[in-house]
Amino acid sequence: MRAIDETHDPQLTSWVSSANRAGCDFPIQNLPFTVFRRSGSAEPLRCGVGIGAAILDLTALGAASATDDTVAQAIAACAQPSLNALMALGAPAWLALRRWLSKVLRTGAGESGRLAAALVRQSAAQFAVPARIGDYTDFYTSIHHAIAVGRLFRPDQPLLPNYKWVPIAYHGRASSIVVSGVGVHRPRGQLMPRGAECPRVGPSERLDYEIELGVFIGRGNRLGEPIPIERAEEHVFGLCLLNDWSARDLQAWEYQPLGPFLAKNFATTLSPWVVTLEALAPFRAPWRRVAQDPSPLPYLDCPELRDAGAAEIELEVALETAAMRARGLAPQRLSRSDFRDSYWSIAQMVAHHTINGCNLAPGDLLGTGTQSGPRPEQAGSLLELTAAGARPLVLSSAEQRAFLADGDRVILRGACQRAGFVRIGFGEATGLVLPPA
Ligand code: MN
Fold first, then answer.
1. Does residue 334 lie within any of the structural domains?
2. CA 114, 115, 118: angle at the middle one, nearest 5?
3. Would 152 be classed as within a structural domain?
4. What's the CA gap between 352 and 229, in Å, rounded?
5. Spatial distance between the Cα atoms of 334 and 260, rounded to a whole number of angstroms
6. What is the CATH number of the domain that holds 41?
7. CA 323 to ligand 1 centroid distance, Å
8. Which residues are catalytic?
9. 240-284 pLDDT, tens digit each
10. Ligand 1 centroid to residue 346 C-alpha, Å
């Protein structure tokens, strides 16, 4: 477990004044990592840190910046078009770099004059998927989502008997993971209309989003060597926002018996910012099960999990239709949920993924699955919010939506707040739905 330390001090402010504005996602207590270059330039992609409305370009600091060897090594690892090398260094290096960044970015820091030259405005940057993702696995950790979706398809048995024992997941597709802002074409595929004799091929008519968190693996494990749950979080670098775009009509026809395939692998959108587990330390919470539910098997349970294995991360989905844009209407919030309601924790996902000896590598991505809360309005997908399209939403523009229309922009946001600490945010993961390619 990461400790709360001086980097979380709510009194800290930054000489980057935009970081001190109320409601800013990236105050000095956050320090999320990203991969970027100046928009329209041919500069190499490289790693940076979000501070206020700016990015600190870690490759523009000069070799003599850090006096400490561990910090110098961590900064050197950032001169790459992905966070993988930094991720591979492990938790002591991440912590050393965070503490150094906190010192040099705080108000009164002697380095401010020199570092100011290494700031790039976020509005002048283009971003990349922050890691070279070798493998992507999507879990199903929200029991509220599992029950709501199960009810639609299996009213007699909404929750399958394995759910409370196994952190369910499927192996996803890494090649089609895109960064926020990249348009997503409506996928084509096999559709089997209700009552039809044969499937036909066409564009999905039931395109949906899923609000999830992405968990980036830092240090990996060797093939054949499971990661014990007590050590699982040492292998996790940080979290981002993830939209698991889903074509519900393709999914309904193809998913049995091997699970999601073409309904999911056409695109997955990530936020460009990775919020580290160090930054999340003040927002952890005890992990609990209701008394009627089984205790997890021993390999999925430990005192650290019970003490602080959950994380309070507020999540929000907003929708902006083409008509809203044309009329200057603000995007409309569709739902809010919180990762603290997840049935399975980050550490349990890692421990379960490796119990059979499966090896994880730096930059591997675990999706948490759709994060839906206990109340119906906390549902993290349109499938749930509209009862599989039976009850379309009426929007502020007077439009209706059962599923997504071309021109819709889906906006995911996340934030952590707790009394006594400064709020931190995840930025945004957005994606515009484009007509079929
Ligand atoms: Mn999903």
1. yes
2. 115
3. yes
4. 8
5. 25
6. 2.30.30.230
7. 28
8. 145
9. 999 999 999 999 999 999 999 999 999 999 999 999 999 999 999
10. 15
CB 428 within 8 A of CB 412: yes
For 359-373, what is each residue's pLDDT tens digit? Answer: 999 999 999 999 999
Q: How far is the CA of 140 from the centre of ligand 1 (A)?
A: 7
> b/e string for 33-45 if b means 16 or more Cβ within 10 A?
bbbbbeeeeeeeb
1 domain residue, yes or no = no
Tens of pLDDT, residue by residue over 41-70, are 999 999 999 999 999 999 998 655 777 899
* Cα 50 to ligand 1 centre (Å): 27
- Distance in Å, CA 120 to ligand 1 centroid: 34
Q: Are residues 27 and 141 in the same domain?
A: no
The alpha carbon of 242 and the centre of ligand 1 are apart by a number of angstroms equal to: 9
* Whole-number percent of the chain with pLDDT over 90: 95
